[in-house]
Amino acid sequence: MTDSKSHTIDTATGKEAPAEISEERVLNIFTEIAEQYERFNRSSSFHQDHKWLDRLVELAPITSSSRILDVAGGTGEVTFAICRKAHPAHILLTDYTPAMLEVAKRRIAAGDARSVNVDTQVVDAQVVDAQKMPFEDNSFDVVTMAYGIRNMPDRMAALREIRRVLVPGGTACILEFSTPPRPVERAFYNLYLKWGIPAWGQHYTGKREDFVYLADSIKAFPAQEEFCDMLRAAGFGHVAYENLAFGAVAIHTAVK
């Protein structure tokens, strides 16, 4: 089982390194690509990203009274999927990068955060470092996160913080790129990470190197079972995952 003690890594390699290396890089990269982030996700996933987010919402036990924390929520894609499909009482959309949240706030103002059936705004946005969150214990019923945990240099700290702010019995739902279990699909996926992701990034932003990092961070992220061990080491129970896209993407669920 993964050691429960925190240690910081270089998120591009998975090797131990000072947190500042990854934090500064992530802040710079996502500031630069914030305006094109959604279009990049749509194209690079071959328009599958909305299906993955919808499945994340289906697996989250959200009710009309749920208080939800969306961690590393970026430009709001998870939050807006929740608004469309689940109609909770409130969502707090958070991200480490202010520029990403600025895009989300414009979308909130334009009405993207309105529930399909309830013409009220249920979303607030706040800049937050998920590795040290400014919230009270037992504050949220559900915590969601997509494509965020792999960019955090102290992942165990983030997972423990997520558990801390959940109510007893609350659920964490984490969507992340992962490792296809079958060799042939894994080989094709690795080729796509090496060549396809940087090419899409060059097309949309002209910043190929930013997307070389994103591909490297995906390859360095723990496979499904290892990440399950990390969740258990953080104190979660009922840990499970569901593979999507042949295992290139996985949704992990865990209960406090």
From TrEMBL:
Superkingdom of the organism of origin: Bacteria
**Record CDD domains:** AdoMet_MTases
Q: Where is the signal peptide?
A: none
Tell me the pathway.
Quinol/quinone metabolism; menaquinone biosynthesis; menaquinol from 1,4-dihydroxy-2-naphthoate: step 2/2
Q: Which reaction does it catalyse?
A: a 2-demethylmenaquinol + S-adenosyl-L-methionine = a menaquinol + S-adenosyl-L-homocysteine + H(+)
Annotated S-adenosyl-L-methionine binding sites: T75, D95, D129, A130
Q: What start-end ranges are recorded for coiled-coil regions in this protein?
A: none
Q: Which UniProt keywords apply?
A: Menaquinone biosynthesis, Methyltransferase, S-adenosyl-L-methionine, Transferase
Q: Show the InterPro entries listed in the entry.
A: SAM-dependent_MTases_sf, UbiE/COQ5_MeTrFase
MF terms from GO for this chain are: demethylmenaquinone methyltransferase activity
Q: Which GO terms describe its biological process?
A: menaquinone biosynthetic process; methylation
Q: Which NCBIfam families match?
A: MenG_MenH_UbiE
The text of the family note is: Belongs to the class I-like SAM-binding methyltransferase superfamily. MenG/UbiE family.
Q: What is this protein called?
A: Demethylmenaquinone methyltransferase
Please tell me the species this chain comes from.
Denitrobacterium detoxificans
The gene it comes from is menG
